[in-house]
Design brief:
620 residues; alpha/beta; 13-stranded mixed beta sheet; 5-stranded mixed beta sheet; 31% helix; globular
């Protein structure tokens, strides 16, 4: 975007922006489309009237700024409306407002749209409770999202769900069928084990997310959505269902084209250093309880960070993966050969305790079922290669078994590395991860081999950056850890202690402290800045110090130019802690690049012998 400052202090019809805003807008200039889902709000607590308030970073990125004059036009009944800049002959003109967020490091004002015309909202959105915003340059399209029960069929599906090689694998087919057709009712018949299984839990979570009420009686599972009268019933045995394998779709003109899912940008940005080209990103930072208490919306941080720190981004889907429209997503994204994705890992770590994990399942805050929508994305887009990253415990889970089996069924050759440690790839931490690579390409793939270690975290990172550490010896977290040290040193039987003391011991045993004798650090976690038991500290003499974000980036191998300055320190720390460790990930990316480029060489060789066959291989 070209920016010309006029003598009156305006930029065309835009108010003068500070250097930070100009830098962000320039970085995002390659974007062509973004999407975001927001809920309609009540004008007053007990009022039936609603309003649509949109305050988003993406407005600036797509050329909507505070004080701009705009026009809102309904597309049709229940079809949404469009917002564009006003022309000279327009009469029903509104303007874009602005607001600031005190919690942010950068204090520039953010544009805000506030739509309250009840006639217009009712016509365009009907009784929708939320909307999808499609951002394009100088044009916003607001599309209503209606509750699933409004689309249900007056039909029922009776499902038989047998066990297959130790897995109730049919849950994937069952969920797929129910989601696709939205039957008013479904029943599932299985054996006595199923209702006590992990697969049953996964199925119930997925269907509750849609809105189904689930009941269980005598091992007969019944789900109901809405109250339509059933006029037809269908039945299916999932063991008899088959999957049609799609042929390879490969674009040889951009062989390393990439889509990132559940990424804040570190993985795809580091892969770009090896020649990959990131065209699309899907990311959404879920709203947490503490966000509600502090009235901070961080849902855009990961997506913005990814778009801001990559070179060729075209499409950003800033939506929760559980609510995305995978068909719309496929249609607006650029096709790519490679998918890079990170399944949310907190349900497989010891940082989150067992009770919190159980409570999350009940409240649907869990992410153990995230592989379901991921598989739908993979099937719709037919990527020729994909890489999935998660913590080591994911490798031994039922979810991992179901995920890999479905990938194989879709025609992928899968390669699982159950445990790769960053320490073995010249990383500064012991970050241990499970990786799954899947490919439809007829070329060999091998995981990278371990390297001889030549780095030292204390000498290379800590000593040169001591001025960037903060003394936290006096804080409650450190004092609790020291109490735990005293209790353990006493030699008393922990099992006979009070729960409070057991908790203190557990926190001490979870400590992540390095000193001058350490050559490698423990894993840096997403909640590092909260100073929890697992946060990384250094011990120098009798003092405990905590690193700032610049040091954390260095420990993770993240390049200095990866810019987090537009976020708060806490948000930046979260983005670092949830990312990949770059040295290890780049070695994996290089192995994947070798695999993909081998296919390109084969295509060129085939094209000389048989142009038609080569074309079919590349684009079929």
């Amino acid at each position: 975007m070209s920016i010309t400052t006029l003598q009156n202090g305006y930029l065309g019809n835009k108010f003068l922006r500070d250097k930070t805003s100009e830098k962000i807008i320039k970085a995002l200039s390659s974007l062509t489309v973004a999407t975001k889902v927001i809920q309609l709000q009540r004008i007053k607590k007990d009022s039936e009237k609603v309003k649509l308030v949109l305050s988003s970073f993406w407005l600036n990125a797509f050329n909507f700024f505070e004080h701009d004059k705009i026009v809102e036009t309904a597309i049709g009944e229940n079809q949404g409306f469009e917002i564009r800049h006003a022309n000279l002959d327009d009469t029903d003109i509104k303007k874009v407002y602005g607001r600031t967020y005190q919690q942010r490091q950068s204090k520039e004002r953010e544009p805000q749209m506030d739509i309250r015309n009840q006639t217009k909202l009712k016509l365009a959105l009907g009784d929708a409770k939320s909307v999808r915003i499609v951002f394009k340059k100088d044009l916003l399209t607001i599309l209503p999202i209606f509750a699933a029960e409004q689309h249900t069929r007056s039909e029922a599906l009776d499902i038989t769900l047998p066990k297959d090689n130790g897995l109730y694998y049919g849950v994937i087919s069952a969920v797929q069928l129910i989601k696709e057709h939205l039957f008013t009712e479904f029943t599932i018949t299985s054996d006595n084990e199923f209702t006590q299984s992990r697969e049953y839990t996964l199925l119930v979570i997925q269907l509750r997310r849609i809105g189904y009420n689930i009941s269980l009686e005598n091992n007969l599972i019944t789900g109901r959505l809405g109250n339509k009268t059933i006029i037809r019933r269908h039945s299916i045995d999932t063991s008899a269902s088959t999957t049609k394998i799609k042929p390879v779709r490969f674009d040889k003109s951009n062989p390393l084209s990439t889509t990132g899912v559940c990424t804040s940008g570190v993985d795809v940005a580091s892969a770009e250093d090896d020649g990959f080209s990131t065209l699309n990103v899907l990311d959404y930072r879920p709203i947490e309880a503490r966000d509600l208490r502090s009235n901070i919306d961080k849902s855009e941080t990961g997506a913005v960070c990814a778009a801001y720190n990559t070179k060729s981004m075209k499409t950003v889907i800033n939506e929760c993966i559980y609510g995305i429209d995978t068909v719309l997503m496929r249609d607006i994204m650029r096709p790519t050969n490679f998918l890079s994705l990170s399944l949310q890992c907190s349900e497989y770590t010891t940082v989150k305790n067992v009770k919190d994990k159980e409570d999350a399942i009940e409240s649907l805050a869990t992410t153990i079922d995230m592989f379901f929508p991921v598989l739908d994305i993979i099937e719709k887009n037919n990527y020729s290669t994909l890489l999935t990253e998660n913590v080591r415990n994911f490798a031994s889970s039922i979810e991992c078994d179901l995920y890999i089996r479905r990938l194989n069924e879709l025609g992928y050759q899968t390669y699982k590395a159950a445990s790769l440690n960053a320490e073995h790839f010249n990383g500064y931490t012991m970050r241990n991860r499970c990786y799954i690579f899947a490919s439809k390409l007829p070329t060999p793939f091998q995981w990278p081999e371990n390297e001889i270690r030549t780095v030292n975290v204390w000498n290379d990172i800590v000593i040169p950056n001591l001025s960037e550490f903060r003394n936290v010896t006096h804080t409650g977290g450190i004092q609790t850890m020291l109490k735990g040290q005293e209790i353990v040193a006493s030699g008393d039987d922990v099992s006979l202690m009070s729960k409070a003391k057991q908790t203190i011991v557990r926190k001490f045993n979870s400590r992540n402290v390095i000193d001058e004798n350490s050559h490698v650090a423990g894993t840096i976690i997403r909640s590092q800045s909260k100073q929890v038991a697992e946060s990384l500290y250094i011990k120098q003499d009798d003092q405990y110090l905590i690193p700032n974000n610049n040091v954390l980036k260095a420990m993770m191998g993240i390049r200095k130019t990866f810019d987090l300055s537009i976020f708060t320190n806490e948000a930046g720390s979260e983005l670092i802690g949830q990312s990949i460790e770059v040295p290890m990930h780049r070695k994996i990316s290089q192995s994947i690049k070798k695999h993909i480029m081998s296919h390109v060489v084969n295509l060129k060789r085939l094209s000389k012998k048989s142009p038609i066959k080569a074309q079919q291989l590349a684009y079929s």
